[in-house]
Specification:
By secondary structure, the chain is α+β, with helices and mostly antiparallel strands. It is 30% helix and 17% strand. It has three helices and three strands. Strands 2-1-3 form a three-stranded antiparallel sheet, with no helix packed on it. A hairpin with a 2-residue loop joins strand 1 and strand 2. It is elongated. The chain starts with a helix and ends in a 5-residue tail after the last helix.
């Protein structure tokens, strides 16, 4: 079960890395307020209303606007996967120094193996009660 969990987790992490580094474009074509077509990676097809012959007006200020619109969403991917740690801020330097100092001091003084009850003898057991009553602690 543990191996299956690790495999699933590694595949999910690979997808996360792939999706964060990949760039893609979503192109959408609207006619009025309704979405007519959308496309990943390519240009969305139009509804054909742009090809209709515009009505010629004598007054150019009164020309009608097209009811169609295109919308493009671009998501740029990241090319830099490695973060360089060549320059550390003062706060980061303080954290690293404090971490190493406390980590090293955790194990200071553990070379001595102090047994507080080594001078005392164990109690005399007249009979083993657990075996006598067949009650065992699990």
């Amino acid at each position: 079960m543990k191996k299956v969990f690790y495999k699933i987790l590694s595949v999910l992490m690979a997808f996360v890395v792939m999706l964060t580094t990949m760039s893609f474009t979503v192109d959408m074509h609207y006619c009025g307020d309704s979405l007519v077509d959308f496309s990943f990676f390519t240009k969305a097809e139009s509804c054909g209303m742009e090809k209709a012959q515009p009505v010629k007006c004598e007054n150019p200020a009164m020309s009608k606007k097209s009811c169609c619109s295109d919308q493009k969403i671009v998501k740029e991917g990241s090319d830099d996967l490695k973060t360089s740690f060549t320059k550390l801020t003062f706060e980061q330097q303080t954290f690293v120094a404090t971490f190493f100092y406390t980590y090293i001091n955790l194990f200071e003084g553990l070379d001595e193996n102090i047994v507080p009850f080594k001078d005392y003898s164990p109690p005399f057991i007249e009979r083993d009660v657990q075996i006598l009553y067949e009650t065992y602690l699990i």
